[in-house]
């Protein structure tokens, strides 16, 4: 099928953007958005990227890194995030991570059936790094060649009681009775300030779509995430080569500019490494010294290290010899 006409995107004229409708939910109409960057010299392969919580796709450098290697780069803004968020919706809320499978299915169809790609790498960050392996385990798409997970959310960080059986039972019960009840939590804006250009960071993005202080967390949504964690912990069957990138260290104490810009202050990287092998049969885990939660938004010298690790892994396990010529 032919590509849709070019539409203007917030990232500029190099990007094609298309919005597709999904079945409505209790809040009304639902859409998702697919963003595409074409390479100058295509290698016949594609990448599909899925963002994290309180996030959307704005990672121009990451997309161009793939495009410079010939990959057609696609990124999806999931329902109720970023380009796909509508005024009548509760941002990010779903009661089951499998609800996202619908838009990932449609994006995958566009990439493989409409656009004809038979070799696709899937990429996910944080919550997207949990949702994507669950989708792969369920769908087993034949075109999938590899999985790249950037600080995937593999477990509940924090005190041990948060992961206890009693807490799990309480979350299940409360999630069924009061799914839209917000969970009290204290979240400062230190992570956002380390990123955004107007607050001392390097990156420019829409603060309405990715707020400095994150988003409210609802009981029903957290129940969905914990169910996803339980499925992962039981073991997934992802057969393709998988790369798990994370920071070398987390830090949850008092923050300074140095700790905030050299550690993962969102997730526990020990948990990420602990559960990485639960994704599938062929997993490589790389801890990047000095990286932050979104590894590809770290300081320039750190993300250069991360990209070098990604390039080495691609050459070793994914790309055929002809792609390296």
Automatic annotation (TrEMBL):
The keyword Secreted does not apply. The lineage of its organism: Bacteria, Bacillati, Actinomycetota, Actinomycetes, Propionibacteriales. Residues 46-257 form the Serine aminopeptidase S33 domain. This is Alpha/beta hydrolase. The keyword Oxidoreductase does not apply. Keywords: Hydrolase. InterPro entries: AB_hydrolase_fold (IPR029058), Hydrolase_4 (IPR022742), MAG_DAG_Lipase (IPR051044). Pfam families: Hydrolase_4 (PF12146). One of its GO terms (molecular function) is hydrolase activity.
